[in-house]
Predict the 3D structure of the following.
Amino acid sequence: MHRDRFYTLAASCPDRTGIIARVTGFIAEHKGWVLESSFHADDEAGRYFMRIEVKADSLPFDLAGFCGRFAPIAAELKMDWKISDSAVKKRVVIMVSKQEHCLYDLLARWQSKELDIEIPCVISNHDTFKGFVEWHGIPFHHVPVTPENKPASYAEVQRLFEEARGDTMVLARYMQILSPELCAAHPGKILNIHHSFLPSFVGARPYHQAFQRGVKLIGATCHYVTAELDQGPIIEQDVIRIDHSDSPDDMVRYGKDIEKTVLARGLRYHLEDRVLVHGNKTVVFR
Amino acid sequence: MHRDRFYTLAASCPDRTGIIARVTGFIAEHKGWVLESSFHADDEAGRYFMRIEVKADSLPFDLAGFCGRFAPIAAELKMDWKISDSAVKKRVVIMVSKQEHCLYDLLARWQSKELDIEIPCVISNHDTFKGFVEWHGIPFHHVPVTPENKPASYAEVQRLFEEARGDTMVLARYMQILSPELCAAHPGKILNIHHSFLPSFVGARPYHQAFQRGVKLIGATCHYVTAELDQGPIIEQDVIRIDHSDSPDDMVRYGKDIEKTVLARGLRYHLEDRVLVHGNKTVVFR
Amino acid sequence: MHRDRFYTLAASCPDRTGIIARVTGFIAEHKGWVLESSFHADDEAGRYFMRIEVKADSLPFDLAGFCGRFAPIAAELKMDWKISDSAVKKRVVIMVSKQEHCLYDLLARWQSKELDIEIPCVISNHDTFKGFVEWHGIPFHHVPVTPENKPASYAEVQRLFEEARGDTMVLARYMQILSPELCAAHPGKILNIHHSFLPSFVGARPYHQAFQRGVKLIGATCHYVTAELDQGPIIEQDVIRIDHSDSPDDMVRYGKDIEKTVLARGLRYHLEDRVLVHGNKTVVFR
Amino acid sequence: MHRDRFYTLAASCPDRTGIIARVTGFIAEHKGWVLESSFHADDEAGRYFMRIEVKADSLPFDLAGFCGRFAPIAAELKMDWKISDSAVKKRVVIMVSKQEHCLYDLLARWQSKELDIEIPCVISNHDTFKGFVEWHGIPFHHVPVTPENKPASYAEVQRLFEEARGDTMVLARYMQILSPELCAAHPGKILNIHHSFLPSFVGARPYHQAFQRGVKLIGATCHYVTAELDQGPIIEQDVIRIDHSDSPDDMVRYGKDIEKTVLARGLRYHLEDRVLVHGNKTVVFR
């Protein structure tokens, strides 16, 4: 939690000697003040990951200046990279159905500025939360989804997301499966919270599956959405203890506490550019 | 989570042989169907604790009938006892200051009926959440507290609580210390969430105390309020891992997630009559 | 943890009214002092579970006397029941391969009398721990297992278990799959520790499976062994947090800490007759 | 977990721009391959911390060569630094009294090479574990401690530690308070496991203190020993859930599982030079 404006560089490249020196040397050369830095070598993949926060006003140029000067180094290192500015708020579109817990939780974090984001709109397949969302001064779009209208509905969701200039879409217990086209159009931008400890209990009614199997812990998983259901890269997970006295309804109730916490943590990591995806796995620099 | 109406007997008495048999014998004699039952012998105190849920329509009498017939047995066993009816919603008055997280969390649980209670009013020493609370159709009382007006303010809080026929008062990060009179007037009815793992870091700014001590986990404690600050019987606690990279501000943020969960769990135990106080300790039949 | 001798009744029966009253009434009638008691109604299965500890010297008869007098009640309630005597140590045969952690852990608990059991022998498919086990005064049997000799080997294991009058067999990271015959011969008596959070990652090399999937927590599961691999009733589970920096080898190392704790907890529940199996699920009265 | 030999640099210095670039630039200049690197800025203290692992055979010089070339840079940055060689095993002296759990746990980890250390000797104020330790081929010294002989006893402990050329002394539930002289002679080298979640329950019988206070979680703390009892820098902590049914004896039993895990984790961090002390706090680069 830094009060001063800073730039965040998140990058990965093939591993070799001298990567940190090359990147931090560039920053030091311009008197950049490093607030936080994390590095990781994936030995199996031969790939190097990094995330560096630099105080904006310690540099003699702005973000565009940084990018222009850094680009040749990134090219030399064959880097995938992005850089963000803490002064530019991310725009997060929330998708919700009829369950309160994640929506209330996200809006409380937004109200208190714990999540320092813009929420340009909330989209739902029900109108349950229209009043609640609008009370917060946030536009609410009701986009019903029926077996018949799915392509049109998801086209409308995509249009609204783009119109809102969304950076991130959060499925806050949105109980519909997005179309493969929508998923493919925004890789690494759509986060879901699945109400099981993946890879256990993929698909529908995971708490009932958990009840039948007699597990002693239940969990939740925040992951990026890909075309394959519940198979995207995992960002964050957690579990909670249950026992034989808990019915599926009790599990649903316990699970909500894990779901909202895991979603909020995963979303924060994502928004702070702490998550780097490689294949179907994530590096999360906490 | 039972759909059918039930009565909950919560009781304690000096330990001796035959207690369970005596109590469950009475229930069985009237064909009462026991949904859930828990028993605990405190060997050190020589005291016996129990909680029994009986299906209401399995009995040939109503709650008053139950009480009338059970009273002689309770007297014989020298019991402290109470019995509640699942069809009568508990009335919970929420006290709040300027922090969102516990208030949003409790209202989300109330909206979804996870907490099946009445909230007759919210009282605050600030008017920050007036609009939010009233949007939910709940009366909001602004009772400012200053160093000068404390006795009058707490008298007003007590008047409002009694006017609202409150069963329980929840300090949902209410940042004032209640008067000893108010505490003494409602023993076992006022719940607080303290933002540390008690008995560590009693009093003000516990996260800053934790930061100075360099602990590796921080916690929260839900307890009954007594006249002695942060010393009442503990109902529930939990912790979350931190590390050297976390500032006091980060700890405050992490702590909120624990605070709201611990408060909600403690409140649920309390409302379901799962908490029996003995001296400065609690038996919690989860 | 009771110092006095006690009997433990563990039982289940079809649910109806009056079960607790009938059983505890019998105990009370004979002035039995109940130390601990737990009850559970499985609404879905319509079955009732209980576990009661009675102080031995509070009763006017011995264990045989208890059984004789209780049998008619059990028959009336259509009960599956067993009763054990805390003065009779359970006999636990440990099966091990080449990994230290669970074996050292169990022997430490046995040495300190935390596990108050007899260990009549340790059986292994390797001779790695022969000296260590014998130093503790425990017989060690080396029963090699090869693809060719499996039937003979498992026959020998079964012979040794029976010769040792074993009550319980613990697979303490025993890296062979027992024969279906052996499993079937001792239902509810063979405990395994599986190194994943089941049902995730059944079978071989679960930590490598977990690494490939990119999960953020890994776990361990203590379960009863049945003929179907890793599918038996789960007794206890736990997890530990990992991150992107952990290799499969790191996970193996972290996992050991969970495995030995989960196995020890599951074994304790089993030995104290806290585990009641129903179908493929367990009731665990902690 | 790296199979190749590597050097580990652990250092701290006043914060300024260019520190990472200066240090990693030096490594890159000599073609050093960085396996793992961690950095932390303590804003409050204005101090910078780092830990870097470099593959030994990627460098054109040995450890002495590294030190000689790095010294001027360290001087320029006003660094406190140390560097270790993964090929040189740390020498860990274990102190124990009469409880098994930590001793068995550490020796199991040593046997399996999970802890790749030398244990030159075990020292105890009792002879309980003489046979067990010697069976492992480790010398055992019985140094009784009585109220009268303390100075002489601790002088003997110190002599044995120095004779053994110990790097680290581990108090594995050693139930005596070391002399201030002994503590002062080896700052940052003596690790203790305290059986409470510090700062709660300092001093004797913490589980009984916890029982009296009625806490719902108990914990353990691994910390460096300083002259002030239970006040040294905390390395690692963890907790476990208990409830009203747990006696102080039960808590002792639960606590052991946390104690040995927390001690093993803390010791590992220490041995891998992941712990940097600053004042009474630690940076732990996990």
About this structure: Helices of chain D lie at 19-29, 63-76, 101-111, 130-135, 150-163, 180-185, 206-213, 248-271. DSSP finds eight helices and 13 strands in chain D.
